[in-house]
Amino acid sequence: MKAFIYAAGFGTRLQPLTNEIPKALVPLRQQPMLQWVIEYLKIYGIREILINTHYLSKKIDAFLEQVSLGVTLETSHEPEILGTGGGLYHTKSFWGDAPFLICNADILCNFDLSAFLACHQTNDSLVTLATNKKVSNSMLLVDEEGTLCGRQKNGKKTFYRTAVGKVRVVGFCGYHIVDPLIFSKPTEKVEFSIIDQYFTLIEQGVKIAGWDIGEAYWVDIGTPETLRQAEIEFPGFV
């Protein structure tokens, strides 16, 4: 399986750390976050990785030239930032026919990616999203069949398809497994959110599933506070 790592963002919540280096290269225990993510993917046999870049992209290029991580690493540079949706659609020629993984350079976790892939292979979904119980202002709504049916923003629920049975409010882990058939779904937008596109697809009858990571470790290294938290708490990979 191939993987796509989002690393184009400005990292504004991590300022001043990101004034001089991109968010993906912010160090955790003296190692850049991007390297932690790549090593995590390697554990599960992922050997072809595409990384999107924009902000301070030359520093990411220089890092990738200097390290030898035992995988094939390529970049997809965005002269104008395209968002998570536009950035993904910009890479559509890279993926071939097999499902691929998407993740963020600033998410540190240790759940079982093999189990995540196995779920996607059996749930007949275009996309499977890894979920957890982390509460935030933006949450997902998943029904009893494990199918995404809506979202909750600032406490307000919006449904994009009819839910089956009881609905759970879950957090999104920033990890997706996506079938390349997604690129056959037309969009006229250039810069857009992939999550917004998922809800558009749900309205069109496309099935998108959720998969709970259980009690696995997960943290969004989005602020200096969560970076310090991860420095102390991260238990390593399983």
From TrEMBL:
<dbReference type="InterPro" id="IPR029044">
    <property type="entry name" value="Nucleotide-diphossugar_trans"/>
</dbReference>
<dbReference type="GO" id="GO:0016740">
    <property type="term" value="F:transferase activity"/>
</dbReference>
<protein>
    <submittedName>
        <fullName>Nucleotidyltransferase</fullName>
    </submittedName>
</protein>
<dbReference type="InterPro" id="IPR005835">
    <property type="entry name" value="NTP_transferase_dom"/>
</dbReference>
<keyword id="KW-0808">Transferase</keyword>
<dbReference type="InterPro" id="IPR050486">
    <property type="entry name" value="Mannose-1P_guanyltransferase"/>
</dbReference>
<dbReference type="Pfam" id="PF00483">
    <property type="entry name" value="NTP_transferase"/>
</dbReference>
<feature type="domain" description="Nucleotidyl transferase">
    <location>
        <begin position="2"/>
        <end position="132"/>
    </location>
</feature>
